[in-house]
TrEMBL record:
Organism classification: Eukaryota, Fungi, Dikarya, Ascomycota, Pezizomycotina
Superkingdom to which the source organism belongs: Eukaryota
Organism: Hypocrea jecorina (strain ATCC 56765 / BCRC 32924 / NRRL 11460 / Rut C-30)
Protein's recorded name: D-aminoacid aminotransferase-like PLP-dependent enzyme
GO molecular function: catalytic activity
Length: 272
């Protein structure tokens, strides 16, 4: 069925986030104000709620809305994980049309707090300073050798992910590879996003990331998603929105990518 899908988001569960107050990281947003091991849980709730509102899923909207919805989501997530989890997890939240919330979890690699909540993204050729993300490991960033049509399923994060899976298959990228593929917009040849991440490129002395329309129906933007770590970076001035033609990428150029599980990761473009 065309409407047989769920909303979902993937985020990091990490007990190290409980150390934010002792590390004097007071600029992290929700995680600074709430002692929680769930990375940017408020932003993940927000984007699922925007998607539910777009599709007019009234029961899902009711479950996710307001402070009550966020607190209920937090408590349900904590109950699912349990009190004895001491290592980080990739934590997936799914919400159905009927407002049913379910969870999945898998192990994930350790990440430093400076990669989760950086004060700045160091420019190309510059070493990482205090409270800036480490440049190792560095992922290989490649372009998809096909183009992707923008749709509501690229604007919102759902379980309809054939376009992302196909992009990764064309570049032979496994889930555990330190590689990412960038989707290219079918209409204008611009970068939409990564298959699992938001990309950032150095242009005119600043980091830029593909623009995302405020609403799907506006027809603006790159056609990609409003990622949670992307929102965090834009709100704090780490990057700005700017269209990025795929043919402007240069082999060997340094970049950054980010997502809700690994935070900010260094990358190098390879035009293979």
């Amino acid at each position: 069925m065309a409407d047989d899908f769920s909303l979902f988001t993937s985020l990091r569960y990490d007990p190290a986030l409980l150390e934010l107050p002792s590390k004097n990281i007071d600029y992290a947003g929700w995680n600074s104000a709430n002692r929680s091991p769930f990375y940017m849980l408020d932003y993940h709730r927000d984007r699922m709620l925007r998607a539910a509102t777009h599709w007019k899923w009234e029961k899902a909207i009711q479950v996710l809305s307001g402070e009550e919805g966020l607190e209920a989501l937090r408590k349900a997530a904590e109950e699912f994980i349990g009190p004895c989890q001491t290592t980080p997890l990739r934590f997936k939240i799914l919400v159905s049309r009927e407002g049913v919330v379910s969870f999945e979890k898998n192990n994930t690699a350790p990440v430093g707090l400076e990669n989760l909540f950086p004060l700045r993204l160091p420019p190309p050729g510059s070493p990482s300073g205090p409270q800036e993300p480490r440049k190792t490991p560095s992922w290989t960033i490649v372009l998809d050798n096909d183009q992707t049509a923008a749709s509501e399923y690229t604007h919102f994060k759902t379980t309809k992910r054939d376009m992302y899976n196909s992009s990764r298959e064309r570049r032979a990228i496994a889930l555990t590879d330190e590689r990412e593929v960038l989707l290219v917009n079918h209409d204008d040849g611009s970068i939409m996003e990564g298959s699992l991440t938001t990309p950032y490129f150095w242009r005119d002395g600043r980091w830029v990331t593909p623009p995302v329309a405020a609403t799907f129906n506006s027809g603006a933007g790159s056609g990609g998603q409003d990622g949670t770590s992307r929102r965090w970076a834009l709100e704090r001035g780490l990057a700005v929105e700017q269209a990025i033609p795929a043919n402007s990428l240069v082999d060997g150029e340094e970049c950054w990518i980010s997502n809700g599980v690994r935070g900010f990761i260094a990358g190098v473009v390879r035009l293979e």
